[in-house]
Specification:
Chain lengths: 232, 58
């Protein structure tokens, strides 16, 4: 059995410690928001999950470019790993946003530009996974995955800027938002520190999960090649 | 006294939504981590079976 790299074990420990500290900060260090109450605490991990989702899709697009240039299968493994993680965190981002919206907007869901583009982005990458399943030839599958990840990445800046370009009720906490936004608040220094620490923690979670998912992809590749060899 | 009552009214009681939000965050991350570990274990098992088959063929 392939042994686990020492650096990955260290990364696991650091990530768990950071997550514990971030959770402590969210609940006990950051003050309660005066109007929204406790549900505002979801914001720290909601935004961090959105950040990891978008970062993952960026990594997938970059891996796609590298695959098309170098034709090295390892970039396909990286791309697939990043998309899978991106889907998990984009899902967390959307669901926690919906939970926050219920008491603040008085609805679970509204077809606001930010919510709509985020959902479309998630669906685009879910389709990536489903379409890959339908391609038998590994080279064709990798080529398709690379092109799809690059083109699909267009949905990421569209989602990010949607709350800044279009009229929206989605609040923008950093920078100026639409005056019609509902649920916006000014971050106190303690809130800002908690927010930045949450972003850092989720970046560590991303790197840790990506490494683990790449190892899994390499093993799946090994099994597939051995299976083909056995069938010959 | 009056001020504290006014402040109490101003802050909404949204604790249950916060709990639901964090349950989703930690629950989904945990499920994904478990899925990675289970898939890794299953692939290792497949790999060992295939290696045994190859050795038998030799």
């Amino acid at each position: 059995m392939e042994s686990k790299p020492r650096l990955l074990t260290i990364l696991d420990v650091v990530t768990v410690v950071l997550l514990l500290i971030a959770t402590y900060m969210v609940f006990f260090y950051a003050p309660q928001e005066a109007v929204m109450g406790d549900v505002q605490r979801v914001f720290y991990f909601h935004v961090a999950a959105g950040w990891v989702g978008m970062l993952s899709f960026l990594v997938a697009a970059v891996a796609g470019i590298f695959y098309l240039v170098k034709k090295d299968h390892k970039w396909d493994i990286v791309g697939l790993a990043a998309v899978e993680i991106g889907i998990v965190f984009a899902f967390i981002n959307i669901v926690t946003g919906s939970i926050w919206a219920r008491p603040i907007w008085n609805t679970w869901w509204t077809w606001d530009p930010r919510l709509t583009t985020a959902s479309v982005m998630l669906l685009i990458y879910l389709a990536y996974l489903m379409l890959r399943q339908g391609i038998e030839d590994p080279d064709r599958r990798a080529r398709f995955g690379a092109v799809y990840a690059i083109v699909g990445f267009l949905s990421v800046p569209l989602t990010y800027f949607s709350a800044r370009i279009f009229r929206t009720i989605h609040p923008i906490v950093i920078g100026s938002g639409d005056p019609g936004a509902q649920g916006a608040f000014d971050m106190t220094p303690l809130m800002l520190r908690t927010f930045m620490f949450s972003l850092l923690t989720f970046t560590f979670i991303f790197v840790d999960l990506l490494w683990r998912r790449i190892r899994l992809g390499r093993k799946a590749d090994q099994v597939e090649q051995l299976r083909l060899k056995t069938m010959e | 006294m009056i001020l504290s009552l006014l402040l109490q009214d101003a802050t909404a009681n949204t604790t249950s939504y916060m709990i639901a939000g964090f349950a989703i965050i930690f629950g989904v991350m945990l499920i994904y981590l478990i899925s990675l570990l289970v898939r890794q274990r299953n692939l290792q098992r497949d790999l060992e079976v295939l290696q045994d088959i190859q050795e038998d063929e030799k």
